[in-house]
Amino acid sequence: MRFHILTLFPDMVRQGLMTSIIGNAIEKKILELDIVNIRDYTLDRHRKVDDYPYGGGAGMVMQAQPIYDAWRSVVARIGKKPRCVYLTPQGKVFDQTAAKDFAQEEDLIFLCGHYEGVDERVLEEIVTDYFSIGDYVLTGGELAAMVMTDAISRMVPGVLTNDLSGLSESLEGGLLEYPQYSRPAEWRGRRVPDVLLSGDHQKVEEWRRKQSVLRTLHNRPELLDEAVLSEKDAKVILEELKNAKKP
Ligand code: 6GU
Description:
The chain has nine helices and nine strands. It is an alpha/beta fold. Strands 2-1-6-5-7 form a five-stranded parallel beta sheet, with helices on both faces. Strands 3-4 form a two-stranded antiparallel sheet. A two-stranded antiparallel ribbon has the order 8-9.
């Protein structure tokens, strides 16, 4: 899969993504990172890419022309018009379902805005998807593009070395992840739960499932509306709610 990231801060994006698992997948050519500096496409003598907003108001607006020409250079080079995501707090909130959906694409373009915004006309011309990564405001789209690239990449086959780990993690099946432990079996007086040392795989799976259900109930109860739950899971929830009611 190829990510084409249009940005005024190419170093920030490269530094953020060329590390760890995503960096490894890029080195192995499972992923390709194509970072395009929008400023390279300005026609302004002073390399300016922004100007004052028509109608007045605070801040500057990124102009249409450099963004459009940066986008066109990608389209011309790859010979197709892939989905183009504009990162904005006004977009749809990105989630695991969207990550899996985007992971099916061969190419994906991200447009990172900065300053107070981007000239609406270029958005209408090139953007196919508007996405936010949550209800808070960032200074630019770069961190959001990096978050989405990371989450999408780990759903691309071959990126995670353990190919099953993309499935069993948090939010698959709509539940939060169970707690994990490693050696030693006791640390600062805290013991690893006995069941995990028992060697009884069935018991371990049951315990983990229960922990996932209880964590979701306590930390993110709204996720239970959409989660796929067994009768046994429902019993665990009812039991917990009964116990919580007791004084
Ligand atoms: Cl995608 N962009 C900005 N600027 N702020 C955000 C965001 C995106 N998602 C959450 N906050």
